[in-house]
Amino acid sequence: MKRSGLRRILLRTLFVATAGLLACAGAGAGTASAQPTSLIAKVVVIGVPGLTWHDVQASPELTALVNQSHVGSITVKSAGPNTCPVDGWLTISAGTRAWGSVLGQPCAQLPAVTDGKIADWQTYVDRQAQHHTGAPLGRLGQAGYPMCGFGPGAAVALARTDGTVNNWWPQFDQQRLASNQCRDAIIDAGAMPPREGREEARRKVAELVAQARAADGWVLLVGVAQELANAHQEPLVAMQLPPDDGPRWLTSDSTRRPGLIQLTDVTATILRGREAPTVDPAGAETAGPLDGTPIGFDGDRHTDAAAVIEDRLDTNQRFEQPRPMLVAVSMTILVAELLALAWFWFTRSPRARRTFNFTLLTQGGFFIAVFLSTATVWWRWPAPGFSLYCVVLGISALFAVLTQVFLKAYAFLGIALAAYAILLVDGVLGTPLQFGSMFTDGPVIGGRFYGFGNSTFATLAVAALVVAGWAAQKLIDKSRVQAALAVLAIGGAAIVVDGRPGWGTDFGGIIALTPAVLLMAWLTWRGSITFRALIGVGVAGVLAVTAVAFLDYLRPADERSHFGTFFARLLDGDVSDVLIRKLQMALAFFNGPAGWAMLVGVVLAMLATVLPGRVPFPAYRSFYTSLPMIRPTLLALSTCGLVGMLLNDAGVALPAIMTGFAAPLLVAHLITAEQPSTVSPESHLVQESKSVD
């Protein structure tokens, strides 16, 4: 076939693949069961900073409410590292995460109301600009319909953009709550005391709930913040009374998880069916959309208060244990690798080689185990933290054994293929394996409740590119066009699952993976690439990502993912705060030596893919030129990591995670393919030195 014919075929294929990507990515995602608006005559929010499920378990009065309520947990993450009471109430005011407390200082008292105005209100407004939160303080207060508030926190939540507040009283008044001037209401029940007096505080909260229900209100009892800046971070209590159609699990479209809502959902619930006022942090222009969505209910009925409380406490373990256990498991594998490397380096025995290879494959298996571990429901086991540690190490070692025994030199492919398949299936199912895994920050630390996070994307990207490279290698001798099509099919499937709203919902991921797949397909087809073609590949990637965001933008505002939300802000010229905040997150990795160490490792790994002749290991140099698809695969991996590092808020962490998955698989393949040396370690080192010279 002539070259022009091949070009036409590939261009058509690229067009079809891109069109398929856009069609899939633009499709709508499933939504949670919404609360029927007609059933809610009045929403009464009772906010209690620091109200935990341990409090419910210890209080007969609060326990008695469980079987009468839709229940769940609420994550109170705000814009800053802590969520003091003022942060929580300001977040409700803005409908998006706000920053109210001072970094490094204890939680301050809530501001006073003097002559109908919040004291030092402008200080809080300026703090949003200082930290680039984009939070439009006063949005709830500008809603323009009768709402009333009781207590200092309610004043903060209901203040207008200039800090003034009306229809507000310092203490709760049941008669005023029942009056017509209270269409909806917010009640500050006060923060739970850290130690002394907590039992009395629980009793008062239960009494307040009973009084609010007597005023014909749909009571929403929620923790709105931690009571102290250094309080234990965990999801807090969320109950909605009275229930409809039996007590179920609270949820919202912003989390898409039964039993979990977020703080900004409270604002969206109060404003249900109404358009949010258009104010910005300065009180003048257009604000971004609400971060939350109205709270609803979903799932099976619950009828056993003790079982519900136990489930909520288990859920706390699910979110608390992964971060410390991630460090523990990683250090265990690293120590095992170093010990095995030392044994292999000094003995070069077949057993030492197999052991070192096993530890490398265990590290590769770890990138699968972090997801599969959630299927074991480890958080319900005795000693959840230790159980998670053992489960992840066990699954990692199991994959290492199986691939080493059955696939031998292709063990790397078995692990990559398993990761690719598992993550594709998990993405299509709505990422149940990722939620609460070691590779998810969790609802307390981060804000991703569904979809692929940065660590998951890094794993999928490596797996997809390695599998695509292997498939193309099998086809390239027969037809370069077929090999390129295989790259597009395998890589394109990863892009679709990673980027489609409701599946991976990962905007930054498709920005990084799309050009890498297109570059790999081009190199597979042509063998080399010109500067002009490189620009074309980059432009094609940008157009594909832009089209995905545009299609999501065309959906109704309350149904958009963050793709469409970002595109809307781009059209409104309101993305500067978002971009600055993401840049700050990326640069934060360089506040300590770990970030710089990651950068050095990433740069060295990328240089090895473009300058293989400079790598001081003959086995790698021979490997690089041994097969046609090795170079395109390695260059695609570097491209994905580089673009992700420059354009993603994870910064250098993203290519570092990719390297942590890809490098052990590559080294394991090299030491397996290399014939065991029959000479002494000393003579082997001399031969290595001569070959480098």
Largest sheet: 8 strands, mixed
- Write down the overall geometry: elongated
Structural class by secondary-structure content = alpha/beta
Number of strands: 12
User: Which sequence of strands runs across the widest sheet?
Assistant: 6-5-7-1-8-9-2-11
Rg estimate, integer Å: 28 Å
Amino-to-carboxy terminus distance: 45 Å
Number of helices: 26
Query: What do the pLDDT scores average to?
Result: 85
Residues in helices, as a percent range: 55-70%
User: What low-confidence regions span 5 or more consecutive residues with pLDDT below 50?
Assistant: 1-39, 677-693
Strand content: 5-15%
What does this structure look like?
With 693 residues, the protein is an alpha/beta fold. 56% of the residues lie in helices and 7% in strands. The chain contains 26 helices and 12 strands. It has an 8-stranded mixed β-sheet, sandwiched between helices. Strand 3 and strand 4 form a beta hairpin. Helix 16 packs antiparallel against helix 24 and helix 22 packs antiparallel against helix 24. The two termini are 45 Å apart. The relative contact order is 0.10. The N terminus and C terminus are likely disordered.
